[in-house]
Amino acid sequence: MNLEMKAIKFSEWASEETYCYQANVYLDGKPFAMVSNDGHGGCDRDYSHNKFKGDYRATMKKVDDYFKSLPNTDPCDLFPEGIEQTFEQWCHDQVCTFLYRKDLKKALKKNKVVQKKNKEGKMGLWDYDHRYTSETIKRSYPEAVILNDLPEDEALTIWRETLG
Predict the structure, then answer these.
(1) Other C-beta atoms within 10 Å of 61: how many?
(2) CA-to-CA distance for 149 and 114, rounded, in angstroms?
(3) Chain center to CA of 45
(4) Do the beta carbons of residue 53 and residue 31 sit within 8 Å?
(5) What pTM value is reported for the model?
(6) Is residue 111 within 8 Å of 130, Cβ to Cβ?
(7) Minimal CA–CA distance to 10: which of 37, 46, 41?
(8) Confidence of residue 132 (pLDDT cuts 50, 70, 90)
(9) Are 20 and 10 a contacting pair, CB within 8 Å?
(10) Taking residues 123-147, what's their average pLDDT?
(11) How far, rounded to the nearest angstrom, does the alpha carbon of residue 94 sit from its chain's CA centroid?
């Protein structure tokens, strides 16, 4: 099952307890669902995309069954057994990834973004003016990772892990 979210429209000013957004979800490369949330803490809404051909509820049941077949998320303090994966959680993660990617692109355009350890040995991100070349930064900090020099997906992974 190949799900992909496209045409994400996000409203920062309307996002209160949850993301205020709307988007299209594609299933195996074809329009499947339209999803949205008003940003006031309620659940997402999903409904059939106007180009979807077929029984929407039966297909959504298959999507739900697919997510139920996946293992729980990694354990954490609040949920030691992890969390059951759902379509709504997947949608939230797609919007979150969209926002992280948008912020990353803006940061990379403005500065050289460097991941390195601080004096206490904790990993963090630092901005360097574009006048500093990657080679200059690497000379001073050989262990540094320069996000501008990485493929976008690798840089995004580091960006998300470091910013948390």
Answers:
(1) 11
(2) 10
(3) 19
(4) no
(5) 0.86
(6) yes
(7) 37
(8) very high
(9) yes
(10) 92
(11) 5
Q: What are the structure tokens assigned to 80, written together? A: 């030691």
> According to the model, what pLDDT value does residue 147 have?
96
Distance of CA 104 to the CA centre of its chain: 11
Report yes or no: 148 and 133 within 8 Å, Cβ to Cβ: no
The DSSP result for the chain, as a single string, is --EEEEEEEEETTT-SSS-EEEEEEEETTEEEEEEEEESSS---EEEE-TT--S-HHHHHHHHHHHHHHSPPPPP-SS-TT-----HHHHHHHHHHHHHHHHHHHHHHHHSEEEEEE-TTS-EEEEEE-TTS-HHHHHHH-TT-EEGGGS-HHHHHHHHHHHH-
Distances 63 to 26, 73, 96 between C-alpha atoms, Å: 12, 17, 20
From residue 65, alpha-carbon distances to 57, 59, 132, 158, 163 in Å are: 12, 10, 51, 31, 32
Six-digit token pair at 50?
A: 């106007």
d(CA 52, CA 39): 26
